[in-house]
């Protein structure tokens, strides 16, 4: 598609969208977009800042894709990048780029031919990790493993709740190893990626290439091992990969949301191997550490953050560093978009997205009763074994809301829904989160239920 055709088609797309949303929404979320590339297979759009990118992908990308499909009779990939000017203003933030196409498989398997292409996040280094009482032992263990990989603390198993810095620490190990030896073969993979790559390799008859890729590494970083629960074939493959690496004195780092002994449906031989190294945990940060994290994040991104706002956020968001930093980014971006100062009132508005009600203010019975009415099913069916589509969806929504609105553990939630195991609970939570991102109708429905249960205006 030539330039004039691309411009004409993009103008038509915008006009179509303009007629379907409010003028303010169009002005805020579509007018600032610049088109960098417009092809039938891939469209690259430039947006002003990271907050804009996150919000647009979550709330506005579905309607854009729908219009593109209708206009182009195709389903192009939409790639969103942040404007260079944002990174010029925040020079301490690493500037992302559109990823180059992956190297041929042979290059990835034989790093002696071409330098190994690691996939580490440049932000996740030891220098940017804030150390406090809650994580100091895990931090020290990670540095020790990075200084002498394969020799001490092998494997290193780090566990803790969501958003506490496990992924940051494990990738920081990778960066330190790379500093010492730039030719190190390092690969970071969420456990689901490991499983999906294995399935693809089996389907394509490329299991040998898959094994070469993982078993020739100097450092394997496997995230969220709990998602291999019940995946017997994947556990078998990982067991042999682990043995090959460990016997070759090459480092393995694994993370989970719980200690090895508490991961259900994981083979005993894997649990035994995790425990043969060092198992360490990360706890939720104390107030001082949370303030230090916010101060460091604000400094890196040149955000002028008043002390009262800093302490307000740190007091309200107590258990998740990812949410703590995300709140700051959204607050800064909203301040920029609205052309207003960061104040406690503005912070309180942003905090409503992140802060759950106090423990005990909402119980599981309230959630089950409200969801049952919404989906026209009985409370007993939510707790029972029936799996019709309507009941299954209602049950998944109820489980999702129970996780968001109460302090119950996954095991406790499962007991309240027919003694379901934690992997079933995790599946329900993940499915509703995915549905909210893809289906605006589902997103509105769940948000309405959540607001009603919180006692907020709908």
Question: Your description of this structure?
Answer:
With 458 residues, this protein is α/β, with parallel strands linked by helices. The chain folds into four domains: 3-89, DnaA, N-terminal domain (GMP Synthetase, Chain A, domain 3), CATH 3.30.300; 116-282, Rossmann fold (3-Layer(aba) Sandwich), CATH 3.40.50; 287-351, Helicase, Ruva Protein, domain 3 (Orthogonal Bundle); 364-454, DnaA protein, C-terminal DNA-binding domain (Chromosomal Replication Initiator Protein Dnaa, Chain: A, Orthogonal Bundle). The protein has helices spanning 3-18, 23-29, 50-59, 61-72, 84-89, 105-109, 136-147, 166-180, 191-203, 207-215, 232-247, 268-275, 287-300, 307-316, 321-338, 344-351, 364-375, 379-383, 389-405, 410-415, 422-438, 440-454, and strands at 34-38, 42-47, 77-82, 156-160, 186-190, 219-223, 251-256, 278-282. The strands form two sheets. A five-stranded parallel beta sheet has the order 5-6-7-4-8, sandwiched between helices. A three-stranded mixed beta sheet has the order 1-2-3. The two termini are 45 Å apart.
SSE order and pairing:
Layout: H1 3-18, H2 23-29, E1 34-38, E2 42-47, H3 50-59, H4 61-72, E3 77-82, H5 84-89, H6 105-109, H7 136-147, E4 156-160, H8 166-180, E5 186-190, H9 191-203, H10 207-215, E6 219-223, H11 232-247, E7 251-256, H12 268-275, E8 278-282, H13 287-300, H14 307-316, H15 321-338, H16 344-351, H17 364-375, H18 379-383, H19 389-405, H20 410-415, H21 422-438, H22 440-454
